[in-house]
Amino acid sequence: MNEARPQLHELLFSSVQGVSLESVDMANAGVQVEARSTAMRVACPGCGRWTGRVHGSYLRFPRDLPTAGKFVVVSLRVRRFVCAESSCPRKTFAEQVPGLTRQFGRRTERLRSTLVTVGLALAGRAGARMTDALGVPVSRNTLLRLIASLPDPPVTEPRVVGVDEYAQRKGRIYGTVLVDVETRRPIDLLPDREADTLAAWLAERPGIEIVCRDRAPFFAEGATRGAPQAIQIADRWHLWHNLGEAAEKCVYRHRGCLRPAPAPPDEPPEEAEPAASSPWPTGHRFAERTRAKHATIHALLKAGHCKRSVARQLGMTLNTILRFSRAATPEDLFTGQWQSRATKLDAYKPYLDLRWQEGCTNAWKLWEEIREQGYPDGYGNVRNYVSRTLRGKPQPVGPRPPSARAVTRWLLTHPDALVESDQIQLKAVLANCPELDVLAKHVRTFAHMVTDLQGDQLPEWIESARASTGLPSLNRFAHHLEHDLDAVVAGLSQPWSSGAVEGHVNRIKMLKRQMFGRAGFELLRKRVLLAK
């Protein structure tokens, strides 16, 4: 043992100063390492004065990293010292071995560091399963407590900061994530997305020169008030995304132009004779029964039977026989529930017929469209009208026209990246609709500004877009750009963007899923800032 003691000491305590290895005992359950502290003088944690006067000693049993599949316990003898400062409130204190123990700690620092790394990577339940596989099983709550006890990392003042929102509870509670765009590391998390909170955070860091953000008004106001010296940059991806939404609304407004105009027929079609429309539904059991009764009653009356005799033979009341006898045809009995009563859907039926002829056969989509136009009722009436009336109507012969979303995708894609079939369809659509042709020119011009960083051309583009007729959504998009013109021009002129921030927003979503039910703000903030 004495010959191997230096090698064991180098193996177990190479990074720890002031510890002497006494012995190593191996048993079936684990390994016990006996050691003692050898420091001659230590500093008082209360006043900081050094002392070498020993009051007593005792044993500590911190658990260490496992070895060869067995758990390791360090039997460490530490001393209790007497403080040499008479005015110090600590009369005695226990020594701590730097790098090995801490106050009230039941694990060595290297084991604690390993558990913290597992907790930051996997959080509670998954982390607990991993520690069990490593041979140092702990509960998920222990891992979360270790994470919560970590201090915040030291952060240098950033020069370029990115700002974006993240959902703590989607649709209800939102926070703010701030990222150093140059190092692509998160700096801080704020509990809300209010302008005052962001302004106060930025005001504490006067060295910030550039703020990358989206065009949310609370971020714009907070950046203006908290960092007036900084240049605000609107993210290009958000600008392109907003343009895509406006373009899709414009295409949907002109969806009638997506279907090619039919060729004029050589001969005028012959007018079909109007068919006699019967209000009685064919095959309906009540309709067929009424027709049979009407025919039987009129046959008996023609045979010479009186009305009372017919009533006795058929088992009907006299008033029923009189009502059927006065009706020349069964359609004359069309009363009450058989009448075509006016419904709230009647005003929208021409639109539904037109959309059906245009190729839209989805009842839910039709209901959503007329609901935007003011239809007050639910989906069931539209579904019944489509299934009972429109399903029997023929649709136009020919290929189905492209959807508004497909045309928008063609407009937003570089012409060289489109396949030949899409190019042909896009050319046909633009040739059939002058407004969409103008929209395509505006989209391509804006795309050149985004890719080539030509922000100085934005005012001219806005003026041209606002002058376009028949494109109200594009007009509104251009009008909104004017409210944040400086930030948009900077975003289209400088290479900075919020791409790193968007990546950390997605990472926060993953961390929240790992800590579902326990992802409070403080715990989430620790994992975001400390995880590698």
What does it look like?
- The protein is of the alpha+beta class and 532 residues long.
- The chain has helices at 5-13, 109-122, 125-134, 140-148, 195-203, 217-226, 236-253, 285-302, 307-314, 318-326, 349-358, 363-372, 379-388, 404-412, 420-432, 434-452, 458-466, 472-483, 485-491, 499-514, 521-530; strands at 19-26, 30-37, 42-43, 50-51, 54-60, 63-67, 70-82, 92-94, 160-169, 173-180, 185-190, 210-213, 231-234.
- The two termini are 41 Å apart.
- InterPro entries: Transpos_ISL3 (IPR047951), Transposase_DDE (IPR002560), Transposase_Znf (IPR029261).
- Residues 42-85 form the Transposase IS204/IS1001/IS1096/IS1165 zinc-finger domain.
Q: What share of residues is helical?
A: 40-55%
| pLDDT averaged over residues | 85
**Radius of gyration, whole Å:** 41 Å
Strands, count? 13
Q: Assign an overall shape.
A: elongated
Structural class computed from helices and strand pairing: alpha+beta
Organism: Streptomyces cynarae
Protein name: ISL3 family transposase
Keywords: Plasmid
Domain Transposase IS204/IS1001/IS1096/IS1165 DDE: 161-256, 407-528
